[in-house]
Amino acid sequence: MAIRTFLPPLAPFLFATLVVGGLASKALHIGLHFRSLPFLYLVLYSPTLVLPDILIIVFVRLLLQFPAPESRLQWISTVLGGFLSLVTWGAASIQFGFFMQTGAEVAWAASNSFLSDPAAMKILLSGVSTVSAATTVLGLVAWLIHAHPYALTGAFLQGIRELGAGAVKARYSLLSVPSKTWWASIDLRSFRRVGLLTAAFISLVFLELSRPSIPYDHLSGALPLTLLEAFTKKTSTAEGCRDPAKTFPLWEVNNASPLAEGWSRASWLPQDPPPGFSRWDTDPLHRAEEDNPSHFLCNGGDEDAFFNPKSDPLKISNLGGDIYEPLQKAFKEHSVEINNIVLLTLESGRKEMFPMQQGTPMFDALLTSHAEGKRDQAIDRLVKMTPIAQMLTGEYVSGSNGTKVDLSDAKWQDPAEDGMGGLNVRGALTGSSLTFKSILGSHCGVHPLPVDLLEESMLEIYQPCLPQILELFNQVKSTNDIQGRSNSSASSDSSPALENQWKSVFMQSITDDYDRQDILDENMGFKHKVVKKTISSPRAKYRAKGDEINYFGYAETELKPYVRDLFYEAANNNTRVFLSHVTSTTHHPWSTPDDFKKEKYMGSVGTVNHDLMNNYLNAARFVDNWLGDIMNLLDETGIANSTLVVIVGDHGQAFGEDNKEMTGTYENGHISNFRVPLVFRHPHMPRIDITANATSLSIMPTILDMLVQSQSIDTRDSEIASAMLPEYQGQSLIRPFISSIKPNPNKDHDHDSKIERPDDIEKRAPHKHQPSKPKTRYVWNFGLINAGGSMISVTSASLPYRLILPLREGFEYVFTHLDKDPGELHPLKAWTLTQLLEEVLSKYDEDASEWLEEAEQVGKWWASNQRRIWGYREA
Q1: Closest CA to 784 of 760, 806, 757, 752
Q2: Where is the composition biased (Basic residues) (predicted)?
């Protein structure tokens, strides 16, 4: 009996969960955008924002009646109403749980991809504690008030029914009663109420029709209707045909296709080239439209629709520039030998931590967690956190007393002579805050596809990836071997290593099942790989000994015997190795093996939970030690002096110490998610610090340029690499980086200095701050914001401005000036470009406003063009 008294009636309780969950979700939805909404407009249009919620509440209340046993329809109605209530309760709990973890909203459109991916489900389940807490709180509130929403809504509906009945009765009396007594039968109060309701309805309709669509259409979305977005996932296809290119908005572009220019088959291309070289293969048998229709434009013409660097308006090449003088000398003296390449991708690898040093926004934020009297100790602890990174970059840091940090106890000691070690790039940005979209840039030299998740895995990559180029080298050598080396172009005094075959291997200690990564690995040309399923198999050569440390897999150290074997194979078996390795310990939840001793890097000052950052810092120190292990293995196997080690971050990782509003990478465009390290390490290359806002697009051309200039490949391979170099969109970093090209006023018709006429500008866009002077051509950098299809980051290499550009509704425009606000603590936000232009012009100057307008046009063009050159069509 006591239990019956404690439990609320089912229908009122379910209805209360709908009301509490739906209205709480709407309050959170509006609250996240409150600062960017004009207050008066918010007040004016607020009734229209909650109208969908009210209609859903009324609809479910009509469904939720106590069922009568003799009424089957009533049972069905109640079950449907209960189902909608439970769905709303659950969805609202997920939204609040996700918000507590990241400070962001759930994008239901992307949830379908996560729910269909077993590996991705582990990511979702990692937030089960916060979702459970939200479910409990919302359920408790619903239990406490369960009788009131049900009764009040019922009374409201009953009043509407009675009001309608009264109005009908009065109208009937008006028509049937003799005229001398008709007024006595009218219910004036009913008419008054009907009039008020009619006026309110008309006002709501007027507000609904007159309000701006952005952002109010997005803000008015209501649970459970917004969940339908989860069932509208688009799929990619390479079938059919590619769309025609859209006109570039800033200057005229030479759009002549390769076929129109009379391209013939490349002399270096074998008869049956490996995957990745489709656009060079002009053989009609290989390029027939009926066999591969995605190569051709939709209009049925014979123009080739592959990416063409000659007509790319954003490509700026520095291949005509001289190589850095110290590198020239090293290359001429043949002291740089590159027989092997190791490409290390650091998960959530922030530049501010590679190495950790004073003077960055992140370091300053970490110090504020410590009391004033303890900050010197904190400095000395933090600057010793990543000693391997100091030696790899050459950025040796100082402690609290201003003296250089002692690295004698580091796991690896750099054997390179003073002044040697390779290239260290300061200012590099990632091309995506989603890991394997970023890896496409570093391994293949391509921009990713601006859609959610890894749709690229289902498409042909529009440039050859490094494993495919190395496989082409192998294929050419195999052909020469068959022909008795009659066509061999290696000189008699060249290194025998130049004739050895390349072996491309991919390694990571976690699963490769997440978001079709295994398919992408194969598409990039990796024939050999070591992943979680390899090291956890009962038949594994070296089975993992430790426990899994996160929902993806094991610590990187489980790969150590596999890396050692590969390096010994390179040393002893006449094999040239390309190893691609992705770390993972610095991924959420930033766990480390039990035998790894954690340090206390964070203090307790402030309102942010510093435990998450402390875990991340310890995970970064663990990875730094692991890099020391890899460098020691290179020394141990004797191939360190002939191995190029490239180190790059896939993306950063935002915490509450960076940005109190949002954390993580998901739908978070904060700059801390985009600054990454970029290092080209070789013990016989002079140490050169490069300041350039480059991206991982530069990795492929830099590696190819190094192989050619150091004569680390034979003449035939050098011919291929030299032909490939101009094809990539990035610049080679062994030459001075070109961040912009100034217009030449004496060459009005020059491609690089096309002058737009004011009347053309006016026709193209009605904004009032259109520039009329000749345009400087910038190196434009683009970065996709996880999950990929909602927002992009737009910067230009020579200017400090940054734009977060929304690609779909529900997201704001964001502008920052990185020179004046390097930590992006005070961004300018607006729902429309016009509003943002006014704010930028008032706070900064006309140059910033003009750049913003160009960045918006270029960003939208780029997003559209990427779909075209990837051959992506939505179905």
Answers
A1: 806
A2: 765-774
In a domain, 249, yes or no: no
pLDDT band at 708 (very low <50, low <70, confident <90, very high): very high
pLDDT of residue 377: 95
* Nearest by Cα to 61 from 25, 7, 17, 4: 17
- What's 176-239 look like in SS3? HCCHHHHHHHCCHHHHHHHHHHHHHHHHHHHHHHHCCHHHHHHHCCCCCHHHHHHHCCCCEECC
* pLDDT digit string, tens, across residues 610-630: 999 999 999 999 999 999 999
Q: Is 145 helix (H, G, I), strand (E, B) or coil?
A: helix
For residue 67, pLDDT beyond 60: no
Q: Render pLDDT for 312-341 as a digit per residue (tens, 0 to 9).
A: 999 999 999 999 999 999 999 988 999 999
DSSP state of 383: H
Residue labelled with tokens 């110490």: 657
Rounded Cα–Cα distance for residues 644 and 423 (Å): 11
- The Cβ of residue 469 has, within 10 Å, a number of other Cβ atoms equal to 27
Same-domain pairing of 576 and 649? yes
Q: Is residue 78 part of a domain?
A: yes
User: Are residues 58 and 146 located together in one domain of the fold?
Assistant: yes
How, if at all, do strands 236-237 and 873-874 pair? antiparallel
Q: pLDDT digits over 423-460, tens only?
A: 999 999 999 999 999 999 999 999 999 999 899 999 98
Answer with the one of 231, 252, 283 that is the final residue of a domain. Answer: 231
Q: How confident is residue 804, by pLDDT bands cut at 50, 70 and 90?
A: very high
What's the total number of domains in the chain?
Answer: 3
DSSP conformation class of 757? P
Q: Which of 231, 254, 275 is the last residue of a domain?
A: 231
Q: Are residues 681 and 782 in the same domain?
A: no
Verify that 686 and 755 share a domain, yes or no: no
| 439: in domain | yes
Q: Residue 780: beta bridge partners?
A: 796
Question: Can you give the residue range of the structural domain that contains 28?
Answer: 2-231
Give residue 200's pLDDT: 78
Q: Please, are residues 696 and 781 in contact by the beta-carbon 8 Å criterion?
A: no
CA separation, residue 684 to residues 323, 388, 640 (Å): 16, 18, 10
Please give the pLDDT value at position 608.
83
Element (H, E) at 644: strand 643-649
- N-terminal to C-terminal alpha carbon distance within the chain: 57
Sole residue written with tokens 């919302």: 138
Residue 816, CA atoms < 13 Å, CB-side half-sphere? 19
- What stretch of H or E contains 482? helix 466-482
- What is the H or E stretch that residue 507 is in? strand 501-507
Residues 376 and 509 in one domain: yes
Helix residue ranges per DSSP H, 306-360: 325-332
Work out the average pLDDT over 494-522.
91
Within a domain: 733: yes
Indicate if 821 and 675 belong to the same structural domain.
no
Q: In this structure, are 728 and 635 located in the same domain?
A: yes
Question: What's the whole-model pTM score?
Answer: 0.86
